Amino acid sequence: MRIVAGWLQRDCASDPQLRQVPTKNFNQRPQHEISLVVLHGISLPPGKFGGPYVDQLFTLSLDPKVDPYFEGIYKQELSTHLFINRHGVITQYVSFLDRAWHAGRSSYQGQKECNDFGIGIELEGTDDQPYTDEQYQVLRELLPVLQEAYPDIGERVASHSEVAPGRKTDPGPFFSYQEIGLRLV
User: Fold this and answer.
1) 122 classed as catalytic
2) Among 25, 93, 126, 144, which residue has the fewest nearby CB atoms (within 10 Å)?
3) Which one, of 155, 93, 163, 162, lies nearest residue 122 by Cα?
4) How many angstroms separate the CA atoms of 1 and 107, rounded?
5) How far is it, in rounded angstroms, from Cα 109 to Cα 124?
């Protein structure tokens, strides 16, 4: 994998499967260097995997009639840079050069508004189930690509719960930082 103009590209057939589903839910980054990766967990409806609902959420096309849970979220303007499903397929919604709307009110090591300087990666999962080997494998391949393209990231990989404590709990206690070679600080 490599990054061209803010978008992931596959270099060879052995790279993870990659989809691009651009959304309008983003804006320009302020003058901040990209220096953080924020890991999230998502499933729609909660606890269910697969289906088109994550794409629909991030592209403002979620039908509130499909599930009662969707009635409370279908109008929310949300996005992320990347989504990794249970099979390890990557979907990119927003260029890394732009600000995705994933972390909300947040701070990391005293720096506020993580969306300004962070890359959001949503993992298909829940707080109460393990993530898949395929997801960990993709993260092990992806993180060095991001760190090379954006050296200020270094080891700055945080959970959504860490940047928005008390408000968010994802990716949850079943996510293993050891599986991707990192410790949560």
Assistant:
1) yes
2) 144
3) 93
4) 29
5) 26
